[in-house]
Design goal:
seven-stranded mixed beta sheet; 25% strand; globular; Rossmann fold; 212 residues; alpha/beta
């Protein structure tokens, strides 16, 4: 375990839940860089957050899709390779989209406060949009991706549940996701929360943002 940590460019030393918000007044007061996670309900967002931070149960894994109905802020402290000072940042967990059982009115309210956050937060660094690697992106995935691109919000596609399919199928699905989203050169990061595959790659991206 120690050997593995020694190779990592980012070591998360602390992680804690700090706030849930549906409006600006409820956002945390500290002015820290924000890295955002969004995806369809049941895409494995909570599992990925727990895998990335290695803080067990930091994000609650629910068997009930659409359970997260607020913007949840987690404050993380990281030791970065080559940097003396530790860096603090927020990991921001947005409600899952595209869950059929959520009523239309409720979806409108969610969309309003999610859009407000994404468009007005001055500290947002980039958005990790999670897509299940086993399936082609759904209409709601495409809509969210296009919305982020249209509003010049940097987005990294993270293909979750990568352990569920073989290596050849993985490459085919990554190509299919690129094709469906309509960007040939799109960076897609396969991730397995179960095996922590892709964790060091995602931490590298986070490090690059934090040292800017």
């Amino acid at each position: 375990m120690e050997k593995e940590s020694a190779k990592e460019s980012v070591i998360i030393t602390q992680g804690k839940y700090v706030a849930s918000a549906v409006k600006k007044e409820q956002y945390p007061e500290k002015e820290l860089p924000e890295i955002v996670f969004i995806g369809r309900s049941n895409v494995g967002k909570s599992s990925l957050i727990n895998s990335l931070t290695r803080v067990r149960g930091l994000a609650r894994v629910s068997g009930q899709p659409g359970k997260t109905q607020t913007i949840n802020f987690f404050e993380l402290t990281a030791k970065l390779d080559g940097e003396e000072e530790r860096k603090a940042f927020y990991l921001v967990d947005l409600p899952g989209y595209g869950y059929a059982k959520t009523g239309k009115e409720r979806r409108k309210i969610w969309a309003k406060f999610i859009n407000e956050y994404l468009l007005t937060s001055p500290r947002l660094q980039f958005v990790c949009q999670l897509i299940d690697i086993r399936h082609d992106p759904m209409a709601s995935d495409i809509e969210m991706f296009e919305w982020l691109v249209a509003h010049n919000i940097p987005v990294l596609i993270v293909a979750t549940k990568a352990d569920k399919i073989g290596k050849n199928a993985r490459q085919k699905q990554i190509a299919a996701i690129r094709r469906t989203l309509g960007v040939k050169e799109l960076s897609i990061l396969p991730y397995s929360s179960l095996k922590n595959e892709g964790r060091s790659d995602l931490l590298d991206v986070i490090r690059d943002v934090l040292v800017q």
